[in-house]
Amino acid sequence: MGQPFKLAENIDKYLKFMTFVKSASPLTIKHYSLDLRQAFNYEKSSSSLSEAELLATARGAFNQWAHLSLASRNRKAATLKSFFSWAFAEGLTERDLSLQITCPRVPKKIPHFLSVDEALAVLKSFNTGAEASLKEKVLFLLLYGGGLRVSEACQLKWAQVFTSQKVLRVTGKGSKERVIALPSLTIQALQAWKKQSGFSEFVFGEEPLNPRTAYDMVKISGQRAGLLKPLHPHALRHSFATHLLSSGANLRTLQELLGHESLQATEKYTHLGIDQLARTMESMHPLGKRK
Fold it and tell me: Is residue 269 annotated as part of the catalytic site, yes or no?
């Protein structure tokens, strides 16, 4: 290597590059910073490393992450690969060390989603008593009726809500803006909530809603509706996508609504519900037609 690799200085430059050039979200930067801090412990070191030492340190960290789930290890490996790739592109290393980092293969899982009956049961639960707040209902309708990520819903501002047009303008991952059409029920709930809450900037308060609070609100909604499995915000986004697709929406439309960068990320929603599989078998298979 032409010059020693100044670890702390270069990691700082990399994080600024991802923030200001790549427009990575604050949550993504937080994860990158945590992964690199765990891998290199650079905050306590002002030393410079050779390429061999740099790679050995990264591999040592990866061995320490062996107890983590495949998904977590995959994300941390992706962070290291991104950092090494940036360093090579900047001429800070002679070799592209990212080629030496292997991401573990993560088995594809069918996303957890609600049946239509379960989604309607949660919706009905908001009308059963004083325990259910309009605030919880609005959050549910944004996640299930609009397919928002929980971070997008928590940070939603009234300036992004256009009730007359029944749309939202949301800035998602990578600062990518998308327009989301909302069902009339969601628009009505938003209008009622704005009148009741009196909040002028953010939809859920004078500052963004804490994601942990949002998780708890959704979980309580599921419990109140009597769902057998714990309900979480992303399950509502999955349900939004699954129900649209099973009703005839095409993948390209779904990609736009979800704000996915690639169609591949949307393809995981091409699974079918058990009830839909059963109906298809009954109507299409020769044995299903026998009386």
Answer: yes
* Type of residue found at 241: A
Segments of the chain with pLDDT less than 70: 1-2, 43-46, 106-111, 128-132, 260-291
Distances from the Cα of 141 to the Cα of 32, 106, 116, 192, 276, angstroms: 32, 31, 14, 13, 24
Instruction: Based on the residue annotation, tell me whether 178 is a catalytic residue of this protein.
Output: no
| Catalytic residue (choose from 31, 232, 234, 268) | 234
Q: Assess whether 212 carries a catalytic annotation.
A: no
Fold of 5-100: DNA polymerase; domain 1 (1.10.150)
- What is the per-residue pLDDT across 53-74, written as a single tens digit (0 to 9) for each? 999 999 999 889 989 988 899 9
The continuous run of DSSP H or E covering 7 comes out as helix 7-20
Tell me whether residue 14 is one of the annotated catalytic residues.
no
Q: Which CATH class is domain 116-278?
A: mainly alpha
Q: Is 73 considered catalytic here?
A: no
Q: Which of 13, 166, 169, 173 is catalytic?
A: 173
